Amino acid sequence: MRAPAAAADAVRCAAALARGLSAGRRSGCVLTTPQLGSFGTDLRDVLLAWPPPEPARRHERGLAACLAFQCSPTKEAAAELTWLAFSPREIAALQWVEGAAALGWIAETWPGLVDTIQELAPGLEPEPWEGLTGPDLAERARRLARSQRGALGVPEVLGELHVLGQPDSAFTSMRKRLGGRLKIVGDTLERIGGRVGEPIAIEGEDESGEPPHGAPLDGGEADGGKASAGGGIPFPEWNITTQTYREDFTRIFESRIGGVASAAARRSSELEGWFSAPIDRRWAGRLPDGGDIDVDGVVESLADRLTGHEASDRVYRERLRSERDVACAVLIDGSGSLAQASRLRHEIACADALVDAMAAAGERHAVFSFWSNTRHHVSLQVLRDFGDATSGPSASAVRPAHHTRLGAAVRAVTARLLHEPAGRRVLLVLTDGIPFDDGYEGDYACADVAKAVEEAELHHIAVALMCLSTPDATPLTDWLDDELHFVPRLRDLAPVLGDVHFRLAA
Amino acid sequence: MSEIALTVEHDEPFYIANTDEVELFLAAVEAKLPVMLVGPTGCGKTRLVEHAAACLRRELRVVVGNDDTTTADLLGRFLVKGGDVEWRDGPVTIAARRGEICYIDEVVEVRREAIAVLHSLSDDRRRLHIDRLSESVDATDDFALVCSYNPDRAVGFRDLRPAFKQRFVTIACDYLQPDAETEVVARETGISEGDAARLVRIASAMRDSVGSMGGEAPSTRLLVNAGHLLALGVAEATAVEACLVQPVVSGGREAEALAMRELLAAA
Q: Which H or E element spans position B171?
């Protein structure tokens, strides 16, 4: 298998492969930039450069071969060493002898890769590996460095010999400088835990989202207020200072995310359990089979028989599944503030599990995500619309970007909900609870969000905002009441969201 | 209406114990305590029940739970026959009257109100209340109630109430160690120990690959299926794809499927 074309698919595939090849000693895969090398491991994860190096791209078994070297237990032996004690030639020799020992492990454990490796690294022979220690490797490396003349070329398939905590390691010093790890978010790379750097866009990434040409970026004060008439649906915004609406102040651009996202979220049975509320059931009579007798049906059937008519066998009743008379919209904050990979991934997984549960319960439902880039451009992406077939793009199609003009998004989805015929309407928002955009922050933004929620509730829409933070971390605490539900720990999102949905919709 | 398996009569089915689960099961039944088996799908829970029932020389009555399983499916219902209305006992009632082992598989899938009727049967009262008949049935001495579920499914709304779970002797079940699993696969399918060992090794790597991240892992049952196909001359790659890969990587998990195929090629 060559490396998959899409970064998100590649990292999932590489992570699964690494876990299998290493019997669980490597738990995942982290993408890195090419400057940090090709393949490597920090003994916890395998490191995969993106775009992937030549062996992974071109050879049929290339990715597996490259990952196998990083899964070898000889890496743990190499981690015992201090690189400062080696000359550059000895470092190259170390990579070579460690690679040979790793090949010894591969030949014993994963023999199907040996032919591939011999093509990618001709001249590399398997060496004994069991019980190998760091000093053993060092001794072999020094012997090799002394015994051979000329350069010691290290095959690319061996990757980089990164060692944790070693100051000379290119990866380690990069990590320290950046203060974090590089992780994939959707199809981009971002640094997590350190300064947020420029995401590396993967070829083909959607670059829409720029405000219309000529639109002011100053919050609109200079141009007298109305949003640029460059398309989109106008919505008002609440002005706390004047206690009036700014009519046609924001522009909503609705777009459809089509097709199945390449990085579809995994359906977790654990998450499903939090959303699989008891199915609504109603008594139905005159059935051919059922757990209870339909007395009226029996009487009728007997009467028909006694009078010479054909007697019906529909004499039972049962509590059958019924569709909930509910329309539920899920609105996902797709702004850049939620771009932390693990948080977004979990949010997406919960949203997908909720959608599955709503489909199973017969609820009409829709899923939206949004971001904003000034009031002139609030992007509302439709992942699933009301009435769509159950299969469709998962929430993993969300591409986080820009800012959070939350009030506008709430109004836009409220308008959609009002068009749905249902006895109950529910709006669930997943957000970090910090509304922010150009000219939209602090009390002004919070007041607008509170107003938008109030407008929805006046139309009998039940609104709940799941804030992925604590009460003191979101300014909305002072503006909303029962509508706010805090999720301080990521693992609590599923039970909180499932419980809120059940109480509002079921 | 849920399907209900009828009484299973059998010779003593082959079963290799992981730890002391057989002894524990038999002791619980002898003490007239209900038993709950908890473990991943396809790890041998049903086989353990069948084996124990054979050891005890008792009839086994199986109910496969799902979210349509009602109280009537467990206790019984009225049927209209001609001009008469007759009561027909359900599997739990039959087992209680006759002293059989009643096994409810996937009990977490059963409706909550149906599970509630089992409470009085699963404590020291060992009594079944049938409201429709205004009758109580005292379980005979040989009656035993056994339930099972996959813990991955018992989350959130599907989780069993503590009041129910804490009535049971709970036995944790898991996949066998590689040597034992190899013996099971070889014996169940007739393939060589070498072929069985290779299948087990591949499945073990696949379990590390996808199972550790909360995904479904290839079960012993799937291994046996693959072994049956190998015994009939199906190529290993085809058997593994059909029996180990495809059943566990459905619905947008193509990346994981690719990884599993690579593990097979690398093995």
A: strand B169-172
- Average pLDDT, integer, range B157-161: 82
Q: Could you tell me which residue, A266 or A196, shows the higher pLDDT?
A: A266
pLDDT of residue A391: 52
pTM (global) more than 0.90:
no
The number of beta carbons lying within 10 Å of the beta carbon of residue A218 is: 11
CB contact under 8 A, B258 and A270: no
In angstroms, the CA A283 to CA A483 distance is 34
Q: Please judge whether A21 and B266 are an interchain contact, meaning their C-beta atoms are less than 8 angstroms apart.
A: yes
Amino acid A2: pLDDT: 61
| Cβ–Cβ gap A19/B209 under 8 Å | yes
Q: Do A110 and B85 touch (CB under 8 A)?
A: no
CB proximity A273 to B under 8 Å: yes
The reply to whether residue A1 touches residue B258, judged by beta carbons under 8 angstroms, is yes
- Determine, for residues B206 and A20 on separate chains, whether the beta-carbon distance falls below 8 Å: yes
A351, HSE (Cβ side, Cα atoms, 13 Å): 33
Show which of residues 200-229 on chain B sit within 8 Å of chain A, judged by CB atoms.
204-206, 208-210, 212-216
Give me A5's structure tokens.
């074309």
Amino acid code (one letter) for A444: Y
Sign of CA dihedral A435, A439, A442, A445: negative
pLDDT of residue A348: 74
The answer to whether B108 and B64 have CB atoms below 8 angstroms apart is no
Angle at A419 between CA A413 and CA A424, to 5 degrees: 85
Distance CA A83, CA A163 (A): 8
Q: Which of A13, A45, A302, A394 has the most B C-beta neighbours within 10 Å, making it the best mutation to test the interface with B?
A: A13
A32 alpha carbon, distance to own chain's centre = 18
User: Looking at the predicted structure, is the pLDDT value of residue B51 above 90?
Assistant: yes
A27 neighbourhood in chain B, CB within 8 Å: 212
CA distance A73 to B85: 72
Backbone dihedral angles phi then psi of residue A500, each to the nearest 5 degrees:
-60, -45
Residue A131 pLDDT exceeds 70: yes
Confidence of residue B108 (pLDDT cuts 50, 70, 90): very high
Give the count of Cβ contacts less than 8 A between chain A and B: 145
Which candidate from A112, A269, A494 shows the least CB-CB separation from B153? A269
Could you say which residues from 156 to 175 on chain B have a Cβ atom under 8 Å away from some Cβ of chain A? 156-159
Chain A residues within 8 A of B71 when measuring between CB atoms: 291
Q: For residue A224, what pLDDT is reported?
A: 42
Task: Tell me whether residue A156 is exposed, middle or buried, using C-beta atoms within 10 angstroms of its C-beta: 0 to 12, 13 to 18, 19 or more.
Answer: middle
Q: How many helices (H) and strands (E) does chain A have?
A: 14, 16
Pairing of the two strands A28-32 and A45-49? parallel
| Interchain CB contact of B78 with A (< 8 Å) | yes
CA separation for the pair A126, A103 (Å, rounded) = 5
Q: Which of A116-120, A301-305, B142-146, B148-152 has the highest mean pLDDT?
A: B142-146
What pLDDT is recorded for position B210?
Answer: 80
Does the pLDDT at position A268 exceed 90?
no
Nearest to A196 by CA among A209, A210, A185: A185
